[in-house]
Every structure is written in structure tokens, then in C-alpha cells.
Amino acid sequence: MGIVVFNKFYYLNMNFSLKKSIYLLIFSFFNFVFAQQTTLFRFNADYENGSALQNVYEHNVDISTRVDEIEELARGDEDSWGYSKRKTAYFSNESSYITSSEPVIQSVFGPHTISGEIFIKPFSSSGQILSWGETNQNNINIRLFDQGIILDHVINDSRYLLQIDYSFEMLEWHHINWYSKVFSDSISLGIYINGKFVDAQTFASEPNGFTIYNSPVIIGYNNLNQSFRGEIYAISVKNYFKENQYLTASIPYDGSAYFGIPNNHDYQVGSTTDNIDQRVFINQTDVNSAAFVPYQNDDFIPQGVTNTFEDDQINPLSEGMIYISLYHKPQTGQTGLKKSIVVEINPLDNYKVRRCFRLNGYLKTAHNGGIAFRNNKIYVSSIYRIEVYDIPVYEPASNKYVDLFTDSNNLFSVDCQSSFVTYFNDSLWVGEYRTSSEGNPYLLGYPLSTAGDVLNNQTPAVYRLPRRSQGVAWRIIEGQKYLYISQSNGGTNYGKIYRCLANGLSQGYEPIIDTTFNIPSGAEDLSFNQHGDLLTVSESGANYFHDSWSTFYPFYYSIPNSLINKINQNNLSSISNSKLLSNNSDLKVFPNPTNNSLTISYMLSDWKKWEGINKTLDLKIYNLLGELVYSESKVFKYQLTLSHSIDTSQFSSGSYFVTISQNGRLIMSKHFVNLK
After folding, report:
1. 8 A C-beta contact, residue 24 and residue 13
2. Which CATH architecture has domain 291-576?
3. What does the buried/exposed string (b/e) look like for 202-237 if buried means 16 or more CB atoms within 10 Å of the residue's CB?
4. Cis omega (within 30 of 0) on the bond before 511?
5. Could you tell me the pTM of the whole model?
6. pLDDT tens-digit profile of 49-66?
7. Residue range 35-279 in CATH 1.20.1250.20
8. Which of 389-398, 587-596, 635-644 has the lowest mean pLDDT?
9. How many CB atoms lie under 10 A from the CB of residue 496?
10. pLDDT exceeding 90 applies to what percent of the chain?
11. Region 584-674: CATH code
């Protein structure tokens, strides 16, 4: 195997010194042994060519700033809102193409995955999009044809082809995710388009041994097929496949980088940190389809969420818009540079941004922590104030970007910090956030007049809340009134939603919690839609938190009615304890690689979660053939961190997997290499 690798690189680099050839041999060996999940190639029209982020060769391609007409007000040169202007690559003729400056090399042994992401605006229904690999041995080709799209993978001289009928709308942007998963006896090809799974097919195959992909990646041209005509914003090739929540999330097409998808963050190709789409936190609580939060790449941070049907008197046949409030805060931490916004999202149009409102009132640059909806008005909360804005009637031909104005008659003082707000039963409920070191926060209920004014001259209803509350929403279930409370727990693995019976609320004591739901951290405001699903939005995908938070969940999403409103759940132990160990990152295996001894350590979640359950964990080690080579059980008492020292001197050289399970259910796994 090493000779084959050496000869391959020697042939490609005959002018290299022997020393460098040996280095490449070693690099290639470790490349397929460790198979680090990484981006192999990336083109982004916004990146400077020749930088650490991108190195390509362009031929007859015009890469320049192009602003769609609908984005002009926010991103144009005159009277602009100051949002980022983006470039695209324009492919105009048969000789237009972009190619990587050097061959893209991936060496693998046995099963592996190749996948990619594409943003295109086609002008023609046929054309080559991407090709990579040697012509006759190992290559991948993706192209449009008159009725759809073709994914073509040749591996070790065998060809596998997925042809999908799909009507691409010309002169419109499309987001394509594709994959080829090579198994020991089969290969699976699949495609997602615009956040929806389209089709997949599995083919029987011969066992694959050592495989090398070695050629430049070419965009837009293939001498065997018609060249691509249109615009390309970005293309990537990866050696892993992204989390399903990432693939199926709706794309807002907000005009910013990656159209709302924050998946690059300017990492160098080939680095071990650039696979941010694999950092998507897996929910412990089932959620409905998520959608990407818009304008995250313009340095906005989401806070409030509401929807048309928060108003219980709304016409049930009316359009059910979702509204998200965001304030501006770049990674420098400076606020007030841009006005806060409220984004109107249409669930009936694949959750695209319909309008973006810019606030011009008293709270125009404030940390707008919450938002409520009633009678076609939005109520924005911050710094002991509630500010009310009328939502203009939507006209199909109207601007996407709209300035909202109000006056002092629509500004109301309240008796708490007004960190968040919600509407329920003719009252506006205003709550506050307090840290763990502060006293318990309060929730105040102010009645509204028929005109929508906050009657702050009347004594509000007052209830205590838990510390670190981020949002609330009310719901009546089988005649009983419940309050739902969110906790972000920013930067940790998960946040919480607490459900409390109204008769368990009081002014003097914290609420009695009926049920706890574990969700990704970063959750902010809450709002129920017309289906009884509970909407929330996570701020963990914002640029500002990217480097400091371990959690990455750049979505707004809903918890289905069937789960969130189920009564008699016995505190949902199956949800609260469904992930007894927090994250695979809590499992440590070192040194890796090893040749003599191995230490395995892992951290348990909060001890209270383990009360009343089996306190035995099973540790097992398997080789690549699936054969069990080591096993032990660990009974623990009160320790939160467990460790094992294992003699690996008798293990053969190769790759192994450590698994941690409880009652036969896999909880965690980690890969390591033993080198003798």
C-alpha cells in the first residue's frame, strides 16, 4: 500500500526531491488513516484569490459585485442600509471556467464519503457545474440537463449515476447539497435542493480498497458536456456529509453571505476547524423543520420571535407571518453601529424573507430582547420600555427593505427591565432577565386598550420567574393555563424550556415546574403558532458568538404541539435524560495515535439526571471489521468524571472505535489509531 502511494506522488511530482516525496508519502498515509473531516476545496466569489482562503485559476469568468435589484436598498451604493455587498462569478460562454490552482488530493482506504455544496443561478437548463478526478478511474461530475440534474461518480473504473428530474427556475438562486457515500459493498448517491431532500439511489458495488482522487476541481466546464451558463456564488467539496438538520433547514435568501447560511466563517481549506456544519447541536427534544436565521452574516443577533397567530383574535385564514427581532453587534462587541431590525418571514414560501423592517424609534439601536404581535402591531421590548410599531400592508410589488417609524405616543414605560415580551388574553406580558447572582426576575402582565396602548397606569399582574429566563409564552391545554419559560444557558450544550401550571405561579416564589424540555443553548423568545407548535430562535449561530460558544445552532424552529402540549408526562425523563453524556467532545481518547497504552475519560452530565436510573456504563472497543477487542463495565457512584487506562500493546496496528453505552444504547463513540 505504501509503495502504491509513493509511486503515485512520485509520478505527479517528479521534480521534487526525494525528501519531499517521502514527506508526501507519510502525509498521504496519515491522510487516509485519520480521515479528518474537512473541506477539500472551496470557491467563494467574495474571497480574495491567492489568499489562505482560496487559490483558484479563472478563465473568461467575471467575478464582481452584483446586487440583485430587490437588495439594492440594503446593499446598494446610494442611501444604503450598509449591509454587505456580495460578489458572484459570471459564466458567459463555452470557455468560462474556474479551476483549483493545484490538484485536490484525497486518499482513502475502503468506505468513505464525498459531498459538496453549490449555490448557482442558472441561465440555461443544461451545463456542467463541477468535475473532479481522473477521467477514467476515480472522478465525480455534476451537471444540469434539460429535465433536471445528474450526479455521476466513477470509482475504480465502475460508474454510478443518479439522474433526477427537477425543474430549476432560471434566473433564480438554488442551493444544492449532494453526496456519494461509499460502503463496503454498495454506494449511495443523493441530492438535496433548497433545503429539501429530492432523491437518492443505492447501487451494489465491489469492495473498494485504496482509492485516490487526484486532479484539479473544475467549475463550469467539461469538454464532453455543455458548459454552465449563469452565476455561481460558492461551491465546496468535503470528505464528510453534513448534519441532517443543516441540510433540511430552509434558506431565507436574505442577500447576505451564503444567503443566511453561516457555514464557512473564513476558515482555510483543509483546516480541522472549518467543518462548522458538523457542529450543529443535536436536539434532545424533537423539533419541526428548522430554518436558518436571516442576516447573521451581517452581524445581527436574533432575540425576539413572534407570529401572526400570537394574536388570538386574528382571522384564522390570514397569512401566518413569523417575525424575528435582531440587534447589531459585530465580533468587536461594539453596539449601535446599525439600527435594529425586525424580519418578516413567510412560512408558505419556504420560510423566505418577505420584508425586513428597520426600526427608527426610541429603541432603534437597543438590545431588543423580545417582540410580540397583536392587531397588526409589533411590540418591541428593551431597557424598561415597550415601543409599538404598525406593520404596513404588504404589496407584492413593494420594497423588501422598509423603514418603520413611530412616535412618543407609542412608547410606554414598564416596571421591569423588559428583556422579553409576549401577548396573551388582552394583556402584554413583560419579563426580565437576571443572572444567577441577582435576585429572581419578575413577569408583569399589563392590560392593553382596544387601541393597543399599554395600560401602564394600572397595577399589573406579577409573577416570579427563574433566573436567566429569556422568553415566555402562555398556552391553555385541556382547560388548564400553562406558562412556558425558556433558558438560553448560552455557550453550554443545551438550554431549557420549563412548563409551569398557572396555579403554580406566585409573586413570592419561583414557579413550580411541571415539565422540562432540553433544547440547544442560545434559545431566546417564545411564541405559539396556529398549530399549537412552540416557536423559538437560537442566537448561537451569530458571528459574535462563533468563536466563544461550543454550541452552534443557527436556526429558528418549533417544538411540535403533540410533544410540547402533552400532559401527564412525568417530567419527561425520556427527554431530560435522553443524552446522559453531553456531547462527543466530552469523550477524550489520548494519546492518539498510541502504541502502548490508552487513556479514555469522559464527563457525565449533572448528577441529578442520573437519579433512579441504572448507574452502569459499558465501554467497548471494536476494530474496523466490527470485531470486539476489549470490553468492561463501569459502575459509578458520585463521581462526574470517569477514566480508564487500557493496555494496547497487544492490539494490532490499525483504526479502532471506542463506544460508551448504557443498557445497550450507544451514547458516545470515538476513533483512535494504534501504531506499533
Report:
1. yes
2. 5 Propeller (2.115)
3. eeebeebeebbbbbbbbbbbbeebbbbbbbbbbbbb
4. no
5. 0.79
6. 888 788 999 999 999 999
7. no
8. 635-644
9. 21
10. 49
11. 2.60.40.10
